[in-house]
Automatic annotation (TrEMBL):
PANTHER family: ANTIGEN BSP, PUTATIVE-RELATED, INSULIN LIKE GROWTH FACTOR BINDING PROTEIN ACID LABILE SUBUNIT. Residues 1-21 form the signal peptide. This is Leucine rich repeat containing 17. It comes from the Eukaryota.
Length: 415
């Protein structure tokens, strides 16, 4: 994170300008206390101007609001961060907020209650984001909203947008949604949302439209099926929902995900790719039979994985390679088959001694039923002719698992 000297100087000058009264909040939840210059770029600044309190957290790579931010502010500046999803009640502690600037983030989803509690808000800036749809419900808590900017978002002007467009077009709402244009469907591309004929949005057959065109859902599947809890840790609870697949639209900032007690048979590649902060993934009591090699891609920080009570026979070669920080792996109550295909798992565990695991018992074939899988692998090696041994686990897979030094380095990074 090396900043060019000119930029540093600018930052310095800027913070000097804001005066001595400015207080600093760490973007990651630590008040740094105005320490080293190098850290200026990771701070939020609190200041008072014309009697109103501002918290400036622009350009910080933030994906969510922090619990240690002061709640009595009137203006919250969050432009140019990395917000992707605005969740229900995300800002509800800032009850005095008059303006909220979220422009130039990566926001692609707004939950209906995202702005709940913001009864004093008059100005909301959401321009330059990735919004395709939103409902008028999100505006309801903000009785005083008079200024809304949503241009430069790829709005999909279909039926789901009907209520929002109608609200924008009310003559009394002169400053809601100015300049915003439809990006989809093709027949409406480039038209201003405040000017389009709303009657067309929900018309059954729009001319020029392919009838079978899939409707974009108002909410990703996950928000309608699962429950999200923000405290104490962001948790997504999708347990016992009769799901036969991992739901789409998994949020990016979730720390724990519970998918237990469903009917998922197959984990496909990269379904958790967006959930980079995930530390606990619970897939117990599904019907898992197959896990694709890249299924856990992106789960760099996963610490605990519960795969117990499934129908797994072995792990395909490579499946575990993305799990650098794994500490606990629950494998019990699966019909592990003790043949050559189980060796990858044992090999991986051997090379990741920091991983606590449980429940690794052979279910098949008959001669090994009830054996510990490790013991079976030892016998296999012992009994094997020499040529097979050299092509076997100790040599053949060498270099795949991280070395101990790698693990230590990663551990330091993670904490
Ligand atoms: C996973 O979910 C099951 C069932 O809800 C629960 O019994 C188990 O403790 C959970 N595993 C972890 C690691 O939290
Ligand atoms: C194991 O999963 C099955 C459904 O797949 C469920 O009925 C059973 O209660 C689970 N057992 C435990 C111990 O969680």
């Amino acid at each position: 994170m090396h900043l060019p000297a000119a930029l540093l100087l600018l930052l310095l000058l800027h913070s000097a300008e804001s005066g001595r009264a400015a207080r600093h909040y760490g973007a990651r939840g630590h008040p740094w206390g105005g320490g080293k210059v190098r850290r200026q770029a990771q701070e939020c600044k609190e200041y008072i101007e014309a009697g109103e309190k501002y918290l400036d957290c622009q350009d910080q790579q933030l994906t969510t609001v922090m619990q240690d931010w002061p709640t009595d502010i009137q203006h919250l500046l969050l432009a140019r961060n990395k917000f992707q999803v605005l969740r229900d009640n995300m800002f509800s502690q800032f009850t005095r907020l008059k303006s909220l600037d979220l422009q130039q983030n990566d926001i692609s989803m707004l939950e209906d209650g995202a702005f709940a509690g913001l009864t004093q808000l008059t100005t909301l800036l959401l321009q330059h984001n990735g919004l395709r749809t939103a409902s008028e419900e999100m505006l309801l808590p903000m009785h005083r909203l008079s200024y809304l900017r949503v241009y430069d978002n790829p709005w999909n002007c279909d039926c789901a947008l009907d209520s929002l467009v109608r609200t924008m077009q009310l003559p009394s709402n002169r400053n809601l949604g100015n300049y915003a244009k439809c990006a989809e469907p093709l027949s409406m591309r480039g038209y201003k949302m405040r000017k389009i004929n709303v009657e067309l949005l929900c018309a059954p057959d729009r001319d020029g439209e392919v009838p079978s065109r899939p409707q974009i859902k108002v909410k990703p599947e996950v928000t309608s099926i699962c429950r999200t809890y923000l405290f104490p840790k962001p948790l997504l609870d999708c347990s016992s929902k009769d799901l036969n697949h991992v739901p789409s639209g998994l949020p990016s900032d979730i720390v724990k995900m519970d998918l237990s007690g469903n009917n998922i048979k197959h984990l496909k590649p990269q379904q958790f790719l967006m959930s980079k902060d995930l530390k606990l993934l619970n897939l117990s009591s599904n019907s898992l039979q197959h896990i694709d090699t890249a299924a856990f891609a992106g789960l760099l920080y996963l610490r605990e994985l519960d795969l117990s009570n499934n129908s797994l026979h072995n792990f395909q070669y490579g499946v575990l390679e993305d799990l650098y920080f794994l500490r606990k792996l629950s494998l019990g109550n699966n019909p592990w088959i003790c043949d050559y295909n189980i060796h990858y798992l044992i090999y991986w565990l051997k090379h990741h001694p920091g991983v606590q695991y449980s429940g690794l018992t052979c279910a098949e074939p008959d001669e090994f039923r009830g054996w510990r899988v490790e013991d079976y692998v030892k016998t296999y090696n012992g009994e094997c002719p020499k040529d097979r041994q050299t092509g076997g686990i100790d040599v053949g897979w060498a270099g795949l698992g991280g070395t101990d030094t790698d693990n230590e380095a990663q551990e330091v990074m993670g904490d």
